[in-house]
Amino acid sequence: MDWHTPVETALGWIRGAGPWTFFSAMALLPAAGVPMLTFTLTAGSAFGQRMGMPAVVAASLVATVTNLALTYWLARRALRPWLTKFIVRMGYRMPEVESGDITDLIVILRMTTGIPFFVQNYLLGLADAPVGRYLAVSCALVLPQTAAFIVFGDALLHGKGRAIFISIGVLAVLVAASHLVRRHWNRTSAGTT
Fold this sequence. Notes:
mainly alpha, 80% helix, globular
């Protein structure tokens, strides 16, 4: 089966919508559960030639930070009463984290694979993470991965072998670094309790 045809059709539709629509959707839709990878893997291929890859990465990083801020605000303010009732109805308690442990929670959530991006954001907002620390730590851990996935998605679609290997290498380094950070945080947390 030729996978290029449906992918090129989808990319043509995305290109037709334009970069403003795409990056606005990237900033907003992950708050409703759309996977961020949907955007990061297609951004470079859809708009790399039109905007240039540095501009695509920059626009994607702005959209990601916007999404981080939006989901934080939703969890802390707009959706908090509803989310609180939902959590209690499901038989759980609201997350309570001491102020000294909040950075640990941010790092652990950001470094644990498998937890959807929007769930991480909502949990950190519900845990009352201070906004400055939430954004600083989240950006330091999330933005390099976002940039690497953009380059990887473009390289994969266009068969750029060297770029594929470089982006896989960067992603592997980020995964290894996240593993080391998570181990360090676990040891540090275990030593202080």
